[in-house]
Known about the structure:
Layout (H helix, E strand, L loop, with lengths): L1 H23 L2 H30 L3 H47 L13 H53 L3 H23 L1
Helix pairs in contact: 1-2, 1-3, 2-3, 3-4
Main location: endoplasmic reticulum
Pfam families: V-SNARE_C
Protein name: Golgi SNAP receptor complex member 2
Amino acid sequence: MDPLFQQTHKQVHEIQSCMGRLETADKQSVHIVENEIQASIDQIFSRLERLEILSSKEPPNKRQNARLRVDQLKYDVQHLQTALRNFQHRRHAREQQERQREELLSRTFTTNDSDTTIPMDESLQFNSSLQKVHNGMDDLILDGHNILDGLRTQRLTLKGTQKKILDIANMLGLSNTVMRLIEKRAFQDKYFMIASVSS
């Protein structure tokens, strides 16, 4: 487990240094850097799944420490994923503003003829409303991403807590029958909770 953990830990630090390159990258290479970072994050997530399995096979006296180390790595990677998404969101907004500025500057205006009038007030108001809706949707999507990341983190924490409780119960000498009854009750409680939420 230790060699894989060390490789994964090293890769997390490499991603952190790559995140600094994003801010200084030019428009042509920023997409390449983003794709490299995302590919590395995906690779780390698959390694973390393997590390979870390996940590559960550790001897009882080392198991808890191994799981804590894996959980810390997961938290770090999730933080990097959120930082990458936030950077992409800011970059898209900046690029859109630049496009709008260029369109406005490249538009040619002519003097008004008697038959030509431009309803500027309505157009400006409509454009402003569209911009507000667009920004609101971007904020909602970003909030949704952050909420999902938070739920994933909570799920991992609760999963780890459940495993620790079961390990403690095993150490205390509870029988397998009692353990199965506890797991069955937790499984049934989940369905009751889902039924009450849906109703």
